Amino acid sequence: MQREKILVTGANGQIGKVLVAALKKLFGNDNIIATDLRADNTYEGIFELLDATDSNTLSKLIMQYQITQIYHLAAVLSAKGETDPTGSWHINMSSTLNVLEAGRIFKLSKVFIPSSIAVFGQSAPKEGVPQSFYPEPATVYGIAKVAGENWGAYYFNKYGLDVRSLRYPGVIGYQSAPGGGTTDYAVDIFHKAIKEKHYTCFLDKGTRLPMIYMDDAIRATLKLMEAPSDQISIRTAYNLQALSFSPEELASEIQQYIGDFSVDYAPDFRQGIANGWPASIDDSIARQDWNWKPAYGLQSLVKDMLDHLIESPQLA
Ligand code: AKB
Fold it and tell me: What does pTM read for this prediction?
């Protein structure tokens, strides 16, 4: 079996931090090369500075470490993307194309480029959006994700590059902070509940969105990447989700543990983004193709988040 050497872009990000740790457990510390725009002084392991829009440095690192796989997590997310549409389009698209080109040129064995529920817009049904529903996103982030999905399928069909992808819903975890997303409230709320017993939510009551616990998101990613190639029927990106909830449903579950926790609502521009997204998507093809099944529902997610954040105050 080929010994894998894996490069991760955006390794300091919310998913990157946790995915790198999981990959190290699977493949060994010396086989994971974490990269990001800025160094994280607390990081233990091989780390390289990389702006993923810089194809020369990406190529140098691939040759230096004899990389066989890339997980491309670096991206400007939905809310931040709206503050600079053309700039974030450039970052998201040029980094994606750099990774795909590197995959083709260096004949990488696999490439993971995540997509998002943000590919769907107002035209999609609110509940259970089918895998093949035509994506009409309203954010620049969503537009770049749709383009990235199609580029991934193109590289697979034209060059045989094994590109795989998931449409991540909002990801909730205690290990790392999110940044620049519309679903970030669902992590922030835990930190504020513990520290201040109050949270002002930037999304309004009733805004139900598809979500997933970090453990499930990492498990889904690794399961997809481990699946035999002939089980992958979707080469754009698989619909993926675990649960759906609104801010007040999440707050009420947190109140089961922190009785004096209160929330008020001050929706900002992110409400407009959330209004365009579905409340749930149909991930039955992921369940069928590679046995995807989430382990966490709302109750178990809230309990696990609070257990970890209360036990380890440095995380809260
Ligand atoms: C965001 O809110 O932008 C992300 C996503 C759903 O892709 N968390």
Answer: 0.97
